[in-house]
Amino acid sequence: MKILTVCIVAFAFVSSIDGNVASTRNCGGRMFVDEAIIIDATTQQDCTWQFQTKEDRILAFTVVGGNVNDAQQFFSIHDGVDIDSPVLLAEKQKIASPRKDFPQAVYTTQPSAIVRFKTAPISNLQLKVQKAVNCPADLGANTGCGRIVDEISCYCVDYNLRTHEGQTTSCLDNGFKLLALESRTEENLLIGAWGNVKRYWTSLTDNLNEGNWLWGSTGTGIVGGYFNWAINQPDGSGNCVHLNDASPQGGWNDDNCANLREAICEGQP
Ligand SMILES: [Ca+2]
Ligand SMILES: [Ca+2]
Ligand SMILES: [Ca+2]
């Protein structure tokens, strides 16, 4: 009860909020992680922070400009709402398909965590706390998942053949959405991970209005945004779009939604 009181008092002293990124130099407090929060390790000892995010999301901890493994001597991250919750260690985290250029991260298994700074670091130490999607190793047979694009999102490839509707439902059943592409980088990273041969269904369709292409998963159109049509596509051959057209250049192809194809599901925090 005493800790809770201290937390509530400290919560009122958040020094700056820049969009959804809050930075603070307080010793301890209780914070809701809407997107990302950066905590400056203070020179005081025994600062305890309680973090909470959306109930179907988890928390990811990284060290700004550093390595969370090396910094762990200064703090402990507990997986849960109280200080007795198990301590999470960077070296024990099993991360599906980690990329070398991602900052090393520690993930909770639930939407809350306690961080206790044990000793004061000698130099400036900033702990970044982000809302993240849980990323399982796979979604079952003939599937695989990974943090392909960044350390807080998750993508899953599904090699089981289904109609466009079947893949849309399958992604949703697993807490994900059928792919929506926002950039060349996103598409290139996915093809780099899972190849340029399979014709993965995406959530892009012109089901509602012929020729008006919308990403079903985000509700946004491709006008003014990213697109990557294959040569001579779209040609009106269907209302659903898959990646990796059979032409040598690849790209997107509109296709019959009833065709059985692979898919990529996407989870964003
Ligand atoms: Ca996306
Ligand atoms: Ca069409
Ligand atoms: Ca076509």
UniProtKB/TrEMBL annotation:
Residues 1-19 form the signal peptide. InterPro entries: C-type_lectin-like, C-type_lectin-like/link_sf, C-type_lectin/snaclec_domain, C-type_lectin_CS, CTDL_fold. It holds the Pfam family Lectin_C. Residues 154-266 form the C-type lectin domain. Keywords: Disulfide bond, Signal. PANTHER family: MANNOSE, PHOSPHOLIPASE, LECTIN RECEPTOR RELATED (PTHR22803). This is C-type lectin domain-containing protein. It comes from Daphnia sinensis.
